[in-house]
Design brief:
51% of the residues lie in helices and 8% in strands. It is mainly α.
Length: 583
């Protein structure tokens, strides 16, 4: 039995995802709200789900493409390969641009690039000549010249070229040593006069320029990765999965971050590293000494603070007044009531207001950052577990369960889905941090979707991590292994579908939240205690059954809610688009 067959078996299993078999009408309080056009959109989205709009290039692939482009330009324009290489590099390896500019004004292109049609100085074929750098006399065989014809001895050429190559990739735009000449130095001269080490460096720079100067290609940003990616702009998403297993965004080269856009990622990363957060912490957790103004952190329970030498000022932590003024009238040495009285009367100074705002801001940021970082560490752990499963455990499981490794691919797929979902879930916290506070309906809907995603992912992760361990430790085939296969494959499918819809909803800016269905469900579920931020699904059977029933079958809504996964489907659909259960 292969994993595809198991997926169909999972569709008939009522409790593999929900964890119980109880029929709860309150599960449908929240859904992805869809309109009448969702059928077509969903089909289009599914068809593009596995569409790859990029190509991974190895070093051999890059070299072959570079050679092909040079040969093509050389043949079409009837120029040498060295000249073709200079032309392509100048026009960022765009063959169409080279052809357009060349056939529009060949002489202008030659003068701009440095490919002179006629030499400035006639290079003799015999006799002796003076080098323009060292001014020594050399036979013609020991002299070389660029397209301009200015003669220099090979020894001076070697020093000139070697210095340029050691300075970096700028050597690719090398010009004639004569100060008044702008003729380009092509690869032929480099190969003729440079040392083997310098030629190797130049070839490396030349190869890398094919990617670095090419607007359609980029190097994978993973440390130590030698692969490049050629991207087909204008189709699909910017997410790229390199052969080195690193996923990144083509647009900003940060790690893949759907459903968050690149500008939000840039702001989030800057905030995580900015000094402003240090200042927020200082404002929220310290107070300035009333005398010397140095920030002080309170590390003991007593309100009696003594500043460090040489200040040594003693003051009250609550009201920042001199400690000598405190006594029975203020509630005793350890219970100053001046601050509380001022707080009740609304007498706040500007510093206290700023401190309160900084504390609230820091607490909010910490809430989102901790969960962002936790999902990142969970993803790293899942990556390690995936690698261990591929290298060690899969073979062991194949032996113990007497099944070929090809029939155990559903486990690898489950771990790959866990890794991907951890990444998506991580970035939803950056999305939530920048979601405007005043958009209450969107925030409630977002937190529900995020909570459901967390709950579904935890079920999948626990099944792949904990329940699989039983079969890894087994010494003989287990009779219920096929049931486990069905459950894990089903969980993988449902979780994948849910997260794909979550990503699509967030990328659309939660536009569905303004519809009647979303708003009514948001209000109903919140009233029934459906805690979403913690990833728990509120049941609320008695109070929500009426609302849920209307959402599923009532004429007021253009969709019905699946009893199995609570996804909102168009009325015309007879099968749930999320979990494929029949209506």
């Amino acid at each position: 039995m292969d994993s595809e067959d198991d997926m169909h078996d999972a569709e008939s299993n009522e409790d593999f995802y929900s964890g119980d078999t109880s029929d709860d009408n309150g599960d449908g309080d929240y859904d992805f709200v869809v309109d009448q056009e969702t059928d077509d959109d969903s089909d289009e989205f599914s068809s593009r789900r596995h569409q790859q709009n990029y190509s991974i290039l190895s070093e051999a692939d890059i070299r072959q493409r570079q050679e092909d482009d040079i040969s093509r330009v050389s043949n079409v324009l009837s120029i040498s390969r060295g000249e073709a290489g200079v032309l392509l590099r100048h026009y960022n390896w765009s063959i169409s641009k080279v052809h357009d500019e060349w056939f529009a004004d060949e002489e202008k292109v030659r003068n701009t690039v440095g490919l002179l049609s006629k030499p400035v100085v006639k290079f003799p074929c015999a006799g002796e000549m003076n080098c323009g750098i060292c001014f020594d006399t050399f036979p013609c065989e020991a002299m070389s010249a660029a397209f301009c014809g200015h003669p220099f001895c090979n020894l001076c050429w070697s020093g000139y070229v070697g210095t340029a190559i050691n300075d970096g990739p700028g050597c690719l735009g090398l010009r004639c040593p004569d100060p008044s000449c702008s003729a380009a130095v092509c690869e032929d001269i480099i190969n003729a006069v440079a040392s083997e080490e310098d030629k190797e460096k130049y070839a490396r720079y030349f190869l890398r320029s094919y990617i670095e100067d090419n607007r359609k290609a980029k190097w994978c940003p993973a440390p130590g990765c030698e692969y490049a990616v050629e991207f087909a702009a204008g189709s699909g998403t910017y997410d790229v999965n390199c052969n080195c297993s690193y996923s990144f965004c083509w647009n900003c080269t940060e790690e893949a971050h759907r459903p968050v856009d690149c500008s939000t990622v840039a702001k989030w990363i800057l905030k995580n590293t900015a000094e402003s957060e240090n200042m927020n912490w200082i404002l929220a957790n310290s107070k300035p000494c009333p005398k010397c103004k140095r920030p002080i952190e309170k590390n003991q329970g007593c309100m009696h603070i003594t500043c460090t030498p040489p200040c040594k000022f003693e003051f009250c932590w609550l009201c920042l007044g001199a400690w000598s003024e405190h006594g029975e009238k203020t509630g005793g040495f350890y219970a100053c009531n001046r601050y509380e009285t001022a707080k009740q009367e609304g007498v706040y100074d500007e510093a206290e207001r700023r401190r309160e705002m900084a504390k609230n801001s820091l607490e909010r940021y910490t809430h989102y950052y901790e969960r962002w970082a936790t999902n990142q560490s969970s993803r790293q752990k899942a990556l390690g577990d995936l690698q261990l499963m591929q290298d060690v455990h899969l073979e062991k499981l194949s032996d113990s369960q007497c099944q070929p490794e090809s029939q155990l691919k559903f486990i690898i797929e489950a771990w790959q889905q866990i890794v991907e979902c951890r990444r998506v879930l991580k970035w939803t916290y950056a999305y939530g941090y920048y979601l405007p506070e005043y958009e209450h309906a969107k925030r409630q809907f977002f937190e529900y979707l995020q909570g459901e995603a967390e709950a579904g992912l935890e079920r999948l992760h626990q099944c792949a991590e904990k329940e699989l361990q039983v079969y890894l430790n087994a010494e003989r085939p287990s009779s219920d292994f096929n049931d486990f296969r069905t459950k894990l494959a089903g969980l993988t499918s449902v979780t994948r579908n849910y997260f794909e819809n979550l990503v699509r909803a967030l990328e659309n800016g939660l536009s569905d939240v303004n519809s009647l269905g979303a708003c009514s469900r948001s209000t109903s579920s919140k009233g029934n205690g459906g805690g979403s931020s913690k990833g728990k699904v509120g049941k609320g059977k008695s109070s929500s059954s009426k609302s849920s029933g209307a959402g599923k079958n009532g004429d007021d809504f253009p969709h019905w809610s699946c009893d199995h996964c609570t996804y909102a489907n168009p009325k015309s659909a007879s099968v749930c688009q999320m979990c494929h259960q029949r209506r």
